[in-house]
Amino acid sequence: MTMTLQATAKPVVAAKRGQRSRAASFGLHAVLVVASVIAVFPVFWVLVTSFKPDERAIEPSPQLVNNSSLDNYVDVVSGAEGSFGYWFANSVLIALLTTVIAVFLSATTGYAVSRFRFPGSRPLLVSFLVVQMFPFAVLIVPLFNVLLALGLQGTSIGLVLVYCTTAVPFCTYMLKGYFDTIPTDIDESGRVDGLSPFGVFWRLVLPLARPGLAVTAFYAFLTAWGEVAFASAFLSAEDTSKTLAVGLQVFVQQNRVEWGHLAAASILVAIPAVIVFYLVQRFLVAGLAAGAVKG
Amino acid sequence: MAEVAYDSASRIYTGNPPVRAVDQLNLDVADGEFLVLVGPSGSGKSTALRMLAGLEDVDEGAIKIGGKDVTNVPPKGRDIAMVFQSYALYPHMTVAENMGFALKLRGTPKQEIKDKVAEAAKMLDLTKYLDRKPKALSGGQRQRVAMGRAIVREPSVFLMDEPLSNLDAKLRVETRANIAALQQRLGTTTIYVTHDQVEAMTMGHRVAVLKDGLLQQCASPRELYDRPANAFVAGFIGSPAMNLKTVPITAEGAQLDGLTVPLSRASLDKVGGLTEVTFGVRPESLKLAGADEQGMELTVELVEELGADAYVYGSVRIGGTPERFIVRVDGRTPPAFGQTVKVALRDAGEIHLFHPESGARLEA
């Protein structure tokens, strides 16, 4: 009794956890501010450039505002420069299809690998890892041959399949790790309560795995959204069948770069990615952490 | 309501050699009975329960619920409700949704679900928490939700897999009584798994003791305590454990150090030509003897004082080797550590004799 009284009466001398001195605080924030500026500045400058006419984009003494207007955006969106509408539609279609297919396949696969013991479950996981080791450049020709054999060359669905080959193995690994953190008691409880095995997956495990699903969806979306090499190799050369990332190259020509239009288009490309990120960000930390610990 | 029957049911895990987790289990549970499966870890008690639930395959034999063979019926077709050790509540549903989930899957009308959940919640004192998620509940409340989820379904059999082991000691004793009372009231056949023999003795109408996948004995708690079928059951049931020692036997009786325990003619006949038996005596059947009485010399090594009683742990030399004995003595006058006391059988003290090799009970 007296012990505790004394202990509480004594003034606390040592700094509490989470408290730091003024100097340390200043130093820390200074570093953070500098790092933030370095990270944000390029994006900011692209935004600034996107409002300027092409010829004002690069100047000896750069200015924030110089004949700025929305002309670049109008040009890009109206299709006066490039076929932005087509590119955008293609990208959205391909990215969404990739996301839906990849998440569905990897969720079912991940659940099977996490819960069921079947011959070849380990080799399956190992093969997923091995597949990830091939560089993109090596895969382009064989994948093209595969698409050719399937009669899918130049089609969006062909490209979606190609993206799934990268997205599914990674997402399966992530989701397997996430499913492993959900106790199997819950599955069993659901089965006793009257669910079929698929019902357990659909009504109990998937809702509980939402953070993991969000992260994998995000990953699959980005895989398809910003990808250039496969998209330019596998889609037909027609301007209207390109994706955004490929289409942007239109603004970069041999002798002339349309900086203003390129910047405006880039900003437009970034917006959907930002929206997706915003939607899933609250799940990201939990999902990444859980996926990272196991699997 | 239904009776349950295990008919030579076995669960065999493949491996080298294959493990018979549950071996030829034969067990009949009457309608409305509270049967406890008890045993040390790895005894197959949980596996036996999971076989009944349909969560574990039955490799040999059959399982019947209400006279119907359910050996190959999936869990949802067995009309059972299970309470898991971890409770296995659905974290993304509220308490009310958790409790009503099985009914919802069955297509019960919403109002009926609501009424039944409300009724069960009232019974379990959960009405205030119906809108909460499981993570906002204490351990005891979660346990009650798990119970409620089982009750709401009105199944023909309740299965409980160590439902109290995650509670603290005081709550466990309280909940133990509540579950027993609830089962009495509902009259639903219940199979209850525990490793705690006190739980088994206090709750079960009958207790089935398992070891290494084999059923050792299935009897009422009293029978189990008074007439254990073998040395394992004798040592497992009762706390502190029965003193079980291998002692030489002569025409006069069992020869303990300085103490001869006379045996009845019937017992001697049963012992037959054996020169040694496993001799069992519970701590409460022993007493401290006066200086002039016959008795074993026991050197006190530890005294556990429990208030009314005290347990004296000490060693006795039997055939030259020190053997540990536990004796229950009056709590107010326990011997001191290091003291040597004389121990003898109480006047009405019971003894148990078991075969030294097989461990089977030799009828006394």
UniProtKB/TrEMBL annotation, chain A:
Keywords: Cell membrane, Membrane, Sugar transport, Transmembrane, Transmembrane helix, Transport. Belongs to the binding-protein-dependent transport system permease family. MalFG subfamily. CDD domains: TM_PBP2. It comes from Kutzneria viridogrisea. It comes from the Bacteria. The chain crosses the membrane at residues 26-48, 87-113, 125-150, 156-175, 259-280. The keyword Transit peptide does not apply. It is a multi-pass membrane protein. Residues 88-280 form the ABC transmembrane type-1 domain. It is found in: Cell membrane. PANTHER family: MALTOSE TRANSPORT SYSTEM PERMEASE-RELATED, MALTOSE_MALTODEXTRIN TRANSPORT SYSTEM PERMEASE PROTEIN MALG. InterPro entries: BP-dep_ABC_trans_perm (IPR050901), MetI-like (IPR000515), MetI-like_sf (IPR035906). This is Arabinogalactan oligomer/maltooligosaccharide transport system permease protein. The keyword Transport applies. Pfam families: BPD_transp_1.
UniProtKB/TrEMBL annotation, chain B:
The keyword Membrane does not apply. InterPro entries: AAA+_ATPase, ABC_transporter-like_ATP-bd, ABC_transporter-like_CS, ABC_transpr_MalK-like, ABC_transpr_MalK/UgpC-like, Mo/tungstate-bd_C_term_dom, NA-bd_OB-fold, OB_MalK-like. It comes from the Bacteria. Residues 4-237 form the ABC transporter domain. SMART domains: AAA. CDD domains: ABC_MalK_N. GO terms for molecular function: ABC-type transporter activity; ATP binding; ATP hydrolysis activity. It comes from Kutzneria albida DSM 43870. One of its GO terms (biological process) is carbohydrate transport. This is sn-glycerol-3-phosphate import ATP-binding protein UgpC.
